[in-house]
């Protein structure tokens, strides 16, 4: 198995080098690595591959809302050079443009909201569809057969559901865990599938995008604080067992702590996944920088190795995000039996 | 788009997409699944409990059977012993009774023999007396006529006596 994998990666690397060297070898040092950041960031179009001068891309819908002009729909191909597929202010269309850094702008400088279906949004929908179809078909199994042993999709989803329920929710939240299990399962599966599908060649770095991790962290933050009980708030605003003068220091720290928790969630997932993608692409870029077949072969081996590690990271990060969410929720709903000493 | 500035569009779609997904999955996937899992776990637990109870009952039953058997055995032994004792006692009693009865019978027989003997002796005495009287009377009658005749007569009588 391992040998087959190695042979396959060798062939792939040779294949990729013949194509890619033409494109990038002619450019400057920066051009040779620019694709890394281009992949890691979000984009208004989905760029799959470049063969010589022809680009294989999927144009995506651009949706803009502004106070004066309302909701408008365009295609990302309206804003680019049809030959080079480059965005730029000079390719403005109906008063809007997308600059070289993939930022939307308005020619007259008025304010607007960019609600485009970007690459990551499409990726997110793909993840959601995969997830929903698996979960619904798993649920269907129980609806059809009653409470029997799992089969098919249920055999894949059920262990995850049980894992999240027993190992994460029950352990980290305590007796009131039942209410939060559905959210935690959804969170775990979304991050896990996002991480795994993001590793596919040509896929988008969706869970390594700060907007995505921010929304997930904010949801955890809202659920934590909405469910916070008397003990939780007492702990924040009148920490038991602390002398009153000390409260002046402790209370601000506790309040900041409320926000640092979801912030840490947001940054941890974003950094872990983005860093993984950058490392993989960095190894691929080595081949272009050194313009050498042997480096290409070595770096492809390394890419294979890092990819295997990334599979692990994908699971660990999904687990960690879910576990920490559960722990924050657990801290907010826990009943403290030891009120007087703390 | 920058690496660490969240894009407005992505936030929007992520928020509503995720909430929609959450709603759909909670309603149609997780609730039925978790309910089915709970149901299955409860049924398995119940089955295990029932098996445990059945095993305990079996063990109890077996213990009870053994106890009953032991009791029955004990009882049998007691009964046998009692019967044995009773028969031994009966034999003993019968023997004693027999000995006693035998002794009694011998006693009675002796008494009867004694009585009979006494009666027989008395009878013999009376007879002897009567005979003596008769002999004497006849002697006396013949005595007057002849001495020889008298002697003959006595002899005759004595002969008669002997013959008797």
TrEMBL record, chain A:
<keyword id="KW-0375">Hydrogen ion transport</keyword>
<keyword id="KW-0138">CF(0)</keyword>
<feature type="transmembrane region" description="Helical">
    <location>
        <begin position="180"/>
        <end position="200"/>
    </location>
</feature>
<feature type="transmembrane region" description="Helical">
    <location>
        <begin position="265"/>
        <end position="290"/>
    </location>
</feature>
<dbReference type="InterPro" id="IPR000568">
    <property type="entry name" value="ATP_synth_F0_asu"/>
</dbReference>
<dbReference type="GO" id="GO:0045259">
    <property type="term" value="C:proton-transporting ATP synthase complex"/>
</dbReference>
<comment type="function">
    <text>Key component of the proton channel; it plays a direct role in the translocation of protons across the membrane.</text>
</comment>
<feature type="signal peptide">
    <location>
        <begin position="1"/>
        <end position="25"/>
    </location>
</feature>
<feature type="transmembrane region" description="Helical">
    <location>
        <begin position="206"/>
        <end position="224"/>
    </location>
</feature>
<dbReference type="InterPro" id="IPR035908">
    <property type="entry name" value="F0_ATP_A_sf"/>
</dbReference>
<keyword id="KW-1003">Cell membrane</keyword>
<keyword id="KW-0812">Transmembrane</keyword>
<keyword id="KW-1133">Transmembrane helix</keyword>
<dbReference type="GO" id="GO:0005886">
    <property type="term" value="C:plasma membrane"/>
</dbReference>
<feature type="transmembrane region" description="Helical">
    <location>
        <begin position="121"/>
        <end position="139"/>
    </location>
</feature>
<keyword id="KW-0066">ATP synthesis</keyword>
<dbReference type="Pfam" id="PF00119">
    <property type="entry name" value="ATP-synt_A"/>
</dbReference>
<dbReference type="GO" id="GO:0046933">
    <property type="term" value="F:proton-transporting ATP synthase activity, rotational mechanism"/>
</dbReference>
<protein>
    <recommendedName>
        <fullName>ATP synthase subunit a</fullName>
    </recommendedName>
</protein>
<keyword id="KW-0406">Ion transport</keyword>
<comment type="similarity">
    <text>Belongs to the ATPase A chain family.</text>
</comment>
<feature type="transmembrane region" description="Helical">
    <location>
        <begin position="236"/>
        <end position="259"/>
    </location>
</feature>
UniProtKB/TrEMBL annotation, chain B:
<keyword id="KW-1133">Transmembrane helix</keyword>
<dbReference type="Pfam" id="PF00430">
    <property type="entry name" value="ATP-synt_B"/>
</dbReference>
<keyword id="KW-0812">Transmembrane</keyword>
<keyword id="KW-0066">ATP synthesis</keyword>
<comment type="subunit">
    <text>F-type ATPases have 2 components, F(1) - the catalytic core - and F(0) - the membrane proton channel. F(1) has five subunits: alpha(3), beta(3), gamma(1), delta(1), epsilon(1). F(0) has three main subunits: a(1), b(2) and c(10-14). The alpha and beta chains form an alternating ring which encloses part of the gamma chain. F(1) is attached to F(0) by a central stalk formed by the gamma and epsilon chains, while a peripheral stalk is formed by the delta and b chains.</text>
</comment>
<dbReference type="GO" id="GO:0045259">
    <property type="term" value="C:proton-transporting ATP synthase complex"/>
</dbReference>
<dbReference type="GO" id="GO:0012505">
    <property type="term" value="C:endomembrane system"/>
</dbReference>
<dbReference type="GO" id="GO:0046961">
    <property type="term" value="F:proton-transporting ATPase activity, rotational mechanism"/>
</dbReference>
<dbReference type="GO" id="GO:0005886">
    <property type="term" value="C:plasma membrane"/>
</dbReference>
<keyword id="KW-1003">Cell membrane</keyword>
<dbReference type="GO" id="GO:0046933">
    <property type="term" value="F:proton-transporting ATP synthase activity, rotational mechanism"/>
</dbReference>
<dbReference type="InterPro" id="IPR005864">
    <property type="entry name" value="ATP_synth_F0_bsu_bac"/>
</dbReference>
<keyword id="KW-0813">Transport</keyword>
<comment type="similarity">
    <text>Belongs to the ATPase B chain family.</text>
</comment>
<keyword id="KW-0472">Membrane</keyword>
<keyword id="KW-0138">CF(0)</keyword>
<dbReference type="InterPro" id="IPR002146">
    <property type="entry name" value="ATP_synth_b/b'su_bac/chlpt"/>
</dbReference>
<comment type="function">
    <text>Component of the F(0) channel, it forms part of the peripheral stalk, linking F(1) to F(0). The b'-subunit is a diverged and duplicated form of b found in plants and photosynthetic bacteria.</text>
</comment>
<dbReference type="InterPro" id="IPR028987">
    <property type="entry name" value="ATP_synth_B-like_membr_sf"/>
</dbReference>
<comment type="function">
    <text>F(1)F(0) ATP synthase produces ATP from ADP in the presence of a proton or sodium gradient. F-type ATPases consist of two structural domains, F(1) containing the extramembraneous catalytic core and F(0) containing the membrane proton channel, linked together by a central stalk and a peripheral stalk. During catalysis, ATP synthesis in the catalytic domain of F(1) is coupled via a rotary mechanism of the central stalk subunits to proton translocation.</text>
</comment>
<keyword id="KW-0406">Ion transport</keyword>
<keyword id="KW-0375">Hydrogen ion transport</keyword>
């Amino acid at each position: 198995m391992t040998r087959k994998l190695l042979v396959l990666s060798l062939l792939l690397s040779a294949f990729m080098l013949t194509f890619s060297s033409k494109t990038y070898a002619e450019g400057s040092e920066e051009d040779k690595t620019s694709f890394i950041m281009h992949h890691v960031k979000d984009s208004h179009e989905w760029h799959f591959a470049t063969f010589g001068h022809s680009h294989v891309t999927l144009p995506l819908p651009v949706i803009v809302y502004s106070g004066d002009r309302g909701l408008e729909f365009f295609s990302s191909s309206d804003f680019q050079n049809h030959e080079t597929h480059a965005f730029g202010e000079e390719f403005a269309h109906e008063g809007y443009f997308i600059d070289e850094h993939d930022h939307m702008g308005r020619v007259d400088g008025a304010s607007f909201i960019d609600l485009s279906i970007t690459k990551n949004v499409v990726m997110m929908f793909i993840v959601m569809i995969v997830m929903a179809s698996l979960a619904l078909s798993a649920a269907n199994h129980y609806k059809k057969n009653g409470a029997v042993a799992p089969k098919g999709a249920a055999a894949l989803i059920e262990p995850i559901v049980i894992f999240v329920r027993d190992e994460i929710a029950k352990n980290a939240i305590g007796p009131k865990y039942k209410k939060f299990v559905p959210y935690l399962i959804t969170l775990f599966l979304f991050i896990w599938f996002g991480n795994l599908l993001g590793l596919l060649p040509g896929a988008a770095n969706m869970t390594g995008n700060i907007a995505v991790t921010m929304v997930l962290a904010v949801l955890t933050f809202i659920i934590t604080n909405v469910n916070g009980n008397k003990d939780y708030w007492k702990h924040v605003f009148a920490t038991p067992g602390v002398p009153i003068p000390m409260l002046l220091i402790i209370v601000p720290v506790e309040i900041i702590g409320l926000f640092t928790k979801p912030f840490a969630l947001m940054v941890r997932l974003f950094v872990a996944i983005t860093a993984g993608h950058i490392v993989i692409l960095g190894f691929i870029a080595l081949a272009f920088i050194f313009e050498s077949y042997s480096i290409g072969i070595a770096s492809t081996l390394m890419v294979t190795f890092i990819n295997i590690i990334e599979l692990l990271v994908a699971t660990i990060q999904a687990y960690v995000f879910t576990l920490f969410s559960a722990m924050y929720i657990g801290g907010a709903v826990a009943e403290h039996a030891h009120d007087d000493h703390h | 788009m920058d690496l660490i500035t969240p894009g407005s569009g992505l936030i929007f779609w992520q928020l509503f997409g995720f909430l929609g997904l959450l709603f759909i999955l909670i309603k149609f996937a997780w609730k039925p699944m978790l309910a089915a899992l709970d149901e299955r776990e409860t049924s398995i637990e119940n089955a295990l409990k029932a098996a445990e109870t059945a095993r305990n009952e079996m063990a109890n039953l077996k213990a009870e059977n053994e106890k009953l058997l032991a009791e029955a055995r004990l009882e049998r032994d007691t009964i046998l012993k009692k019967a044995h004792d009773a028969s031994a006692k009966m034999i003993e009693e019968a023997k004693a009774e027999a000995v006693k009865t035998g002794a009694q019978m011998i006693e009675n027989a002796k008494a009867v023999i004694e009585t009979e003997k006494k009666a027989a002796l008395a009878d013999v005495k009376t007879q002897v007396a009567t005979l003596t009287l008769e002999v004497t009377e006849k002697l006396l009658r013949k005595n007057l006529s002849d001495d020889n005749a008298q002697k003959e007569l006595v002899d005759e009588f004595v002969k008669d006596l002997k013959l008797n």
